[in-house]
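Task: sequence design from structure.
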């Protein structure tokens, strides 16, 4: 098994440590002092200053973990990746698990909702025209494009930064032509054999999400011997594959796929191990808003009553250095992050 590094021993401020004993996570607002090392023998904790003794792979992973994530320059817009940002979910589907049908067949209303989400503090509006909930009906690519393109056109004319949530290359092409700047694919560019070429041709950033069966829809169950290791290794292979296909690693974002083919125990393990994903050298997205796991931990609370859990998971992501938080409840999440940022800023000035 390959060696893996998970940042641990996070510190409020590096100033009490000798030089090099605490380092910054991905150029962001968090500092840590050690790694949990696994995959090459017994799991152990190693101070960051000793990581050079573990060989070339450890040094390479360390360099990726601490390297600042460059901002994404997307036309006239810039998406900063040195702090947690909110990506707002805007579904234009009749059957989304959370808000299906809210903006069905009304592009103007959907776009107005997206503008309102941006005004509430979302840095990115993630527009989707096909539900990815378990058992959802497959949408023909032309129908999906007809759903999303008029909304994207209106949003981009209003100056809003947009990503397209799709797994189909023709929808990617149509959305990017309409003004979308980022592709968010729950199949990690595996569902449609044309999609990697479409993203590379456009030079667009892409979000690669883990699922155990991306070609079949993403929700198939499998037994994980070690869910953290297996998700990390799968995403590492996907990143290398899309880089080989001509996509710049600096424009790749990874998502652990919370809720996709994973049990409650699997999801909790992944959330606790989120800092490991920075070793891929990419920005990280977390999409846990209103997910089933929140209901499972709170007396089966229905989808509309999962705000508290959603905000808690967003803050867990911020505390793991996640750069993009994909959420439904924008204003509440933005407020929570502003308080979180205030606490971090105060800690870093001593």
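Answer:
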């Amino acid at each position: 098994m390959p060696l893996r590094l998970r940042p641990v021993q996070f510190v409020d401020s590096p100033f009490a440590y000798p030089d090099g004993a605490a380092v910054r996570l991905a150029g962001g607002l968090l500092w840590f002092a050690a790694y949990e090392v696994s995959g090459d023998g017994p799991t152990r904790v190693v101070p960051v200053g000793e990581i050079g003794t573990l060989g070339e792979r450890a040094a390479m992973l360390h360099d990726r973990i601490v390297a600042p994530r460059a901002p994404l320059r997307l036309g006239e817009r810039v998406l900063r990746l040195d702090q947690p940002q909110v990506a707002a979910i805007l579904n234009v589907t009749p059957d989304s698990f959370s808000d299906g049908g809210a903006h069905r067949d009304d592009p103007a209303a959907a776009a107005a909702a997206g503008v309102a989400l941006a005004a509430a503090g979302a840095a990115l509006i993630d527009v989707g025209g096909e539900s990815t909930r378990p058992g959802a009906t497959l949408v023909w690519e032309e129908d999906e494009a007809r759903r999303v393109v008029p909304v994207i056109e209106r949003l981009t004319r209003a100056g809003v930064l947009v990503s397209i949530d799709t797994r189909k290359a023709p929808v990617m092409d149509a959305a990017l032509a309409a003004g979308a700047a980022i592709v968010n694919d729950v199949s990690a560019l595996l569902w449609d054999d044309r999609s990697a070429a479409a993203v590379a041709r456009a030079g667009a950033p892409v979000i690669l999400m883990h699922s155990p069966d991306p070609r079949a829809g993403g929700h198939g169950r499998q037994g994980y011997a070690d869910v953290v290791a297996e998700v990390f290794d799968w995403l590492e292979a996907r990143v290398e594959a899309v880089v080989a296909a001509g996509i710049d690693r600096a424009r790749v974002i990874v998502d652990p796929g919370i809720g996709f083919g994973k049990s409650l125990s699997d999801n909790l393990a992944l959330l606790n191990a989120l800092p490991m994903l920075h070793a891929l050298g990419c920005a990280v997205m977390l999409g846990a808003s209103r997910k089933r796991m929140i209901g499972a931990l709170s007396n089966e609370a229905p989808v509309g009553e999962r705000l508290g859990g959603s905000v808690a998971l967003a803050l867990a992501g911020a505390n793991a250095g996640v750069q993009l938080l994909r959420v439904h409840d924008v204003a509440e999440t933005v407020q929570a992050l502003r308080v979180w940022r205030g606490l971090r800023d105060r800690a870093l000035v001593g």
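Residues 72-348 form a domain with the TIM Barrel fold (CATH 3.20.20.20).
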